[in-house]
Specification:
This protein is mainly α. It has a domain of 80 residues. Helix content is 45%, strand content 0%. It contains five helices and no strands. The termini are far apart. 12% of the residues are buried.
Length: 136
Amino acid sequence: MSEGVNARDVRVAVVPEFARPVVDRITAAKVYPAWTLTPAEWLVVHALIKRSGPDMLAAAAVQAAQRARNGVAHARYFLRAWQALPPAPEPGTIPAAAPTAPARGSNVVPFPAAAERPGRAAQAADWYADLLAEEQ
């Protein structure tokens, strides 16, 4: 602690090996924050990688960067979003399939799929195309 350097002010500019997959995925998405984190922050990042996995952290960081109005200058911006992520599912866990049809005797009427029921803009475009076809 000589020369007036405080241990809490130390920033580590080198990305540790455990964080390299997350940093590489974020960089591949063309998001370039500064990665000068304190050793304590790198410890938090390591725990989050173990809990949620590098894919989930990288996806959350890219989404947060896309929502940021002025861009992301520092990786510290991602820490709060990463801490809110759920744990990664256990290996071999299969997500529950969504029911394809209501149970027999049910009083639930399913909504038609988006492909079966076009939106208003698509309907208007179809009507306009029909009118143009009639004029020709």
